[in-house]
Every structure is written in structure tokens, then in C-alpha cells.
Design goal:
Helix content is 43%, strand content 15%. By secondary structure, it is an alpha/beta fold. The protein folds into 2 domains: 248 residues, Type I PLP-dependent aspartate aminotransferase-like (Major domain) (Aspartate Aminotransferase, domain 2); 95 residues, Aspartate Aminotransferase, domain 1 (Alpha-Beta Complex), CATH 3.90.1150. A hairpin with a 2-residue loop joins strand 6 and strand 7. It starts with 7 loop residues before the first helix and ends with a helix.
Amino acid sequence: MKFPLLDLKAQYESIEKELKERVSEVLDSQIFILGAEVKALEEELSAYVGAKYALGVSSGSDALIISLMALQVGQGDSVVTTPFTFFATGGAIARLGAKPVFCDIEPNTFNIDTQKLAELLELEIEKKGNAQIKGILPVHLYGQCVDMKPIQSLAEKYDLFVLEDAAQAVGSEYLMDSEVKRACTLGDLGILSFYPAKNLGACGDAGMVLTNNQNLVDRMRLLRVHGSSNKYMYDILGGNFRMDAIQATVLRIKLKHLDSWMVGRQQKALVYDGLFREAGLVENGLIQTPEAVYRDKGIKYFHTYHQYVIRAESRNDLQLYMREKGVPSAIFYPMPLHLQKCFAYLAYKEGDFPESEKAASEVLALPIYPELSEMNQELVVTTIKDFYADR
């Protein structure tokens, strides 16, 4: 019996009645852009995350762009980030005329390696005198926070901004000096994506920026509406980054369920962990699970499992075998940014970031969502076990 990588229909059916009623109210109001629904979502999400301010925008990608614009990143500037991420992270930097400077990842978390980051900043800023580096853009990949304390220390040392890309990490938590904080409160700004496949997904594109800095949010309010403070009067060069009211309405309904949905994902992850151990696939080194990856960090339960990603030997052959058996999977991401054609002008080459390149050849995302049945999880693990047994 076939089943999807992500079953959005099952989630929809659980809240269908309320969604239809509330969306109908928005249609009746004929207020479709910004307005009371967006403002209410901003207030509810800022409270949920623990930030003072929130700004609803048109997508997660636009959330990155408007944040960098508010930080006045532009031509001649550089921003350090990871090459193992979705295109939008590096793309937002480049679209503003700035230069993405890549730093390799940790092999056990897939997130930016803070030790390598420290070495890169020392080389570029202290030894080379590179004054173009303005900030750090860490990505909380797959739902797991980056180790942010060293990043905060480096930002303070070199007077850099920190912009968190939490597009995959709404609700993810990090233990900072005995205080648990949520993603988007660990830097100067943090962004969320509400692409439909996210843990908190809209019914189209939407995003949000969160911050504790009033000056930044005030500037972004102007940037969001073409730089206009009064109708047809433009103070700065902005863009159209406005959130739709219907998306805000959908997100407000889903936000009430987010914590329980995340618990569901964590429970499914624990089932996978147990099934893979029972199958002997972790012990013999054929795969590496997130449970194994994060054990050394001692922060496994802070993971919200936007994706349950394993490392797998002979990954491409395994995925093909799974596809033939009707078992879904996905690769996030098959090629790191420094090897992408659009970034060739940066003059990076194969071998520059070996951990990112290795991860791109090994990672495999498995189905994970609260409604996923244990029977289908068993099928996933059995199929993977059978693949290796046949080799």
C-alpha cells in the first residue's frame, strides 16, 4: 500500500471545518492583504516564540531578503553562512549584491561548524583585515537549532549581526545558559517559512520575521510596503513583502495545534530510532539516524523533526530501491550551494567543504508526520534492511 512522504490531507481533515469557517469570514470581509488577521498572527507567534516583535511577510525567502535589507546589507558586503541549505539562504544574500561566504558543517548535526566559523572569521577579519563581513546567517536545518552560544560570542567579538534562518525550525529550542530559548530569539533577527510542507504550513506562500529590536521591525514595516509610510509617499526603497490575510487565518488555526503536532513528530522519530536499532542497521554502520547523531549533543528532544534524515551508505541506490518498492523518500539537498552553477562566480571548487559534500551524497529524508502509521514506519525500515541484505 503506497503512502506519501508527507500527508497534508490528513492534517487538513482534522481541522477542515474550522478552516472553512474562518476562511469564509475573511472572504466575507474582503480584506485580503495585511489587516487584523495578520496583526493577530504576529502577536500570537511573537508570544509563542518569545520575541517582542513579529512581521508577517510574503514567504520565507522574502523574510530573509527583508531582514538583510533592514540590516542594510548590500553591494560589497559579505555574510557568512552554510553551503548545506536550501537555495534561498545564499540566494537572499546574493540578490542584494552581497557575497555569500560559506563555512562547512558539523558532520553530526548538518549545521554550521562553529569551530570552523571561528577559524574563518579569525583568518578573514583579524589576519586579512576583511572589513566586508557584516554578519552570520546560521541555518537551523531539519528542525534542530545550531549551537548558538559560540555564534553569539563570535558576533560580539567581531561586531557582526546574527540572522537566524529558522525556516525549518519553528518551535525548536536551545539551552542557553540554563535558559531554554526558541529559534528566532537567539540572534538579532530570525525568520520562519510557512511553505505548506513546513511543520506550521500555510495554504500558499507566507513567512515571518521575529526580533527584539524595535528599530529593525520599524524599518521592516516600511520595507514591507515598498518603503511607504503614507499612501504614495516613499521614504526608502522597499518592496512588496506583504502577507495575505487568508494565509494568516490558516496559520492562526494551525498554530493552536503546533505543539501537539510536534510531539507527534517526536514520537514517530523515537519509533524510527527503535526500529533501526532493532534492525541492526545503526550498529553495523550502514546508516546513521538523527537519534545517533544528536546523542552526543545531549539535546535530542529539542529537535522538532521537520525532517527525519538519515545518512545512508549507497544512498542513491537505496533511494532507487525504495522507489521501486513504493516507499517514499527525498534528498535535502543533493548539491551544496558552493557547487551550484549560479554561484560559480564565487570560485569555490569541489573539495572546499568536504562535510557538506559528503552529507549531500548520504542524506535521505524519510516520511515523518503525526498521522504516519507505525505499520508504514516498519515498512520503511524493513525495506531499507532488505536493500542492504540483498547486497
